[in-house]
Amino acid sequence: METQFNQYxxxxxxxxVGVVGKGSGRHxxxxxxxxxxxxxxxxxxxxxxxxxxxxxxxxxxxxxxxxEVVRSSNDKVTPENPFFYLRSEGFWQHVGKxxxxxxxxxxxxxxxxxxxxxxxxxxxLEAGFYHLLKDRKKRELFREALISRYFPDKQDALAELxxxxxxxxxxxxxxxxxxxxxxxxxxxxxxxxxxxxACGMRIRLPSGxxxxxxxxxxxxxxxxxxxxxxxxxxxxxxxxxxxxxxITPDHEGRxxxxxxxxxxxxxxxxELCALEGERMLRPQEEIYAPSMAAIEWxxxxxxxx
Length: 305
Fold this sequence. Notes:
The protein has two domains: 2-161, no CATH class; 174-299, no CATH class. 41% of the residues lie in helices and 10% in strands. It is built from 13 helices and nine strands. It has a three-stranded antiparallel sheet with strand order 3-5-4. Strands 1-2 form a two-stranded antiparallel sheet. Strand 1 and strand 2 (27-28) form a beta hairpin.
């Protein structure tokens, strides 16, 4: 069960959401995580009984309310799309209604509004995922994961929206922390292609072993933010220095080095000092680049400055 929990946690952090828009309006599509949040809410309310998610007005309305909070200006309220396309994630399975000649393989298009009354099909979650979601604490952990990963800047607004008052899980076990950290690490290393943004080192063995870590700009304990823009990939040495506020990028993406370091004192310090003014590596997808707010938070804590 622990392995399953880790796998689903990782899966939720890496949904195939797609990126749309141009310039400052470029962003991840919010539809899939919003649909999952709507399902979790309806499970809390008792509107979803058993492992059966109906295509109905209740689900559509809940989706629309959450969507209005997190949407970007050009996002359209289309719950039919994630209801259909979530099946690409594996844990979301369409089932034809008894008596209807509709097979899962035959569902080639998203449902229509007219299908609400027809009841052609519903969704069943993969058995292992549904078993976890029956546990209220696990359900809350998955909700927090979705919000921390996709909508960290909307945490307060989403909390106000909830029908059933949710409380952050007060006691998170070490195993659950490990699951979240592992999911964030995979997300960040994929974003930066397993390459240190300070020195460019990239070592990835066939076994999967890599020499880089995922570092939060603003610690999760402070921000509850696991969006890729709140982290980047660093090798072991630069991660150590970064965590001790000895190095940090500035708003132009150039490295700043603490004045407490002295290049003549040791080769290790000289290596860190050499970063001063150098540009950090950027992710291929610019919307995942470090946010200005996170960089300012780090810059204000640079030791000796």
